[in-house]
Amino acid sequence: MKRNPSNFRYAWTASLPVLFGYVTLGFAYGLYMHNLGFSFWYPLLMAMTIYGGSVEFFIANLLLQQFNPLNVLLITAVLGFRQFFYGVAMLSKYPQHGWRKWLLIFGLSDETFVLNYYTKIPAGYDSTVVRTWISVLDYFYWAFGALCGGCLGGVLNLQVKGLDFVMTALFLVLAVEQFLKEKNHWSSLSGLIITIGCLLVFGKSYFMIATLLLLVLEYYWFSYRKGGSA
């Protein structure tokens, strides 16, 4: 009798690059919160509820200031606006019904998007289950790192500076790995060209939103052409 492949094991293997990046950066975030004077449960609670690295680092500073809910809402919306486009891109890959739909939506971080969108899941595996496990594992990595950093912050008593580069480095590693797997590099090259063009035209304050809009339009244009030529 043929043994069914393990969806969890495949998801675990695929998520290993995120494991090292998320635990390291989550640890730095926990230490950062400790250095600001917060107990270990603050970074853990924020990691489990907000689950957005850049937003969490920014909110940490806002907690030391006078509370302004409108300001927090606007900043969070701007920092997390790219998640909207991630969700649009995943419409064809995520289930439209059931409890997994909501879990996958909540767990759609930058690195999880890269893994769930680009990972080629072999025949015999349940793609929805694999993507669910990837999302759960990535979420656990981040929360675990934040907890360790917050708990050990008092023992280590370190002033952490500059470790936020780990998130950028992790995303670049995943992007390069995907680039090497591609048969046609047009999508990656066009994305790079669009990003540089928007940076030059709109400046660093607004280029991200313009880039994401153009990339989504490009995605649907190519999808339309592919469907029309079929």
From TrEMBL:
Superkingdom as given in the UniProt entry: Bacteria
UniProt membrane topology term: Multi-pass membrane protein
A GO BP entry: L-valine transmembrane transport
Keyword field: Cell membrane, Membrane, Transmembrane, Transmembrane helix, Transport
Subcellular location: Cell membrane
PANTHER family xrefs: INNER MEMBRANE PROTEIN YGAZ
Name of this chain's protein: Azaleucine resistance protein AzlC
